[in-house]
Specification:
Its EC number is 2.2.1.2. It catalyses: D-sedoheptulose 7-phosphate + D-glyceraldehyde 3-phosphate = D-erythrose 4-phosphate + beta-D-fructose 6-phosphate. It contains eleven helices and eight strands. By secondary structure, the chain is α/β, with parallel strands linked by helices. Helix 4 (about 65-75) links the parallel strand 3 and strand 4. Helix 1 packs parallel to helix 3 (about 40-50). The longest helix has 17 residues, at about 195-210. Erythose-4-phosphate binds next to helix 7.
């Protein structure tokens, strides 16, 4: 499963890219607003750090506006993926970009039928929002399982990008469900490496090694 980081914070992106764990980046208008920076500057900077796919979301909600903005975003860097909302206009724009060879990420997906529509118009990625479904007492992971089954039934090439990830458990669950990618907040990526037995085991090894008085170098 590929790991994307869900942030517009440059320092977090740079640090995570250096770990070798990062395959791409997703942003959205809320994350851009939080960064307090100019949208296009942020996207260009992210693309200069991470060579993998970087999702940049359109602000327009009508077809013509999405097409105009998507073309601007796609020209910012070769690895930009145009992110579009799961509406009829967004799907129509996805079809147009797909024909033009521009990569797309269809966002705000909350049902298997929505994911089916995105695959039919040739979306590169579909983003089902796991955490926001869990928030309303629905089952986000079950949505990933259902989309996996539908896409496999028809051999759709659209990649399932599990989004709105909140916890390390979400990562295990979406990996078991067969998501192709997870886009994860930086803090959750770091938490994946934590285990109390790793911590206590390493402390003991360090202590015992010191007691030998030896040096490897
Ligand atoms: C996905 O592309 C979105 O940017 C993101 O995962 C939304 O997460 P949230 O529900 O925590 O805002």
């Amino acid at each position: 499963m590929k790991f994307f980081v869900d942030t517009a914070e440059i320092k977090d992106i740079r640090d995570l890219y250096e770990t070798g764990l990062l395959d791409g980046v997703t942003t959205n208008p809320s994350l851009i607003a939080k960064s307090g920076r100019q949208f296009k500057d942020v996207i260009k900077e992210i693309c200069s750090i991470v060579p993998g796919p970087v999702s940049a979301e359109v602000a327009a909600t009508d077809y013509d506006g999405m097409i105009a903005e998507g073309h601007v975003l796609a020209k910012l860097a070769e690895n930009v993926v145009v992110k579009l909302p799961l509406t009829i206009d967004g799907l129509k724009a996805t079809k147009t970009f797909s024909k033009e060879g521009i990569k797309t990420n269809v966002t705000l997906c909350f049902s298997p039928n929505q994911a089916l529509l995105a695959a039919k118009v040739g979306a590169t990625y579909i983003s089902p929002f796991i955490g926001r479904l869990d928030d309303i007492n629905a089952d986000g992971v079950e949505l990933i399982e259902n989309i996996r089954t539908i896409y496999d039934n028809y051999s759709f090439a659209t990649e399932i990008l599990a989004a709105s990830i909140r916890t390390p458990n979400h990562i295990t669950e979406v990996a078991l469900a067969g998501a192709d990618v997870a886009t994860i907040p930086p803090a959750v990526i770091y938490k994946l490496a934590d285990h109390p037995l790793t911590k206590s085991g390493l402390e003991q090894f360090v202590k015992d090694w010191k007691s030998t008085g030896q040096s490897i170098l």
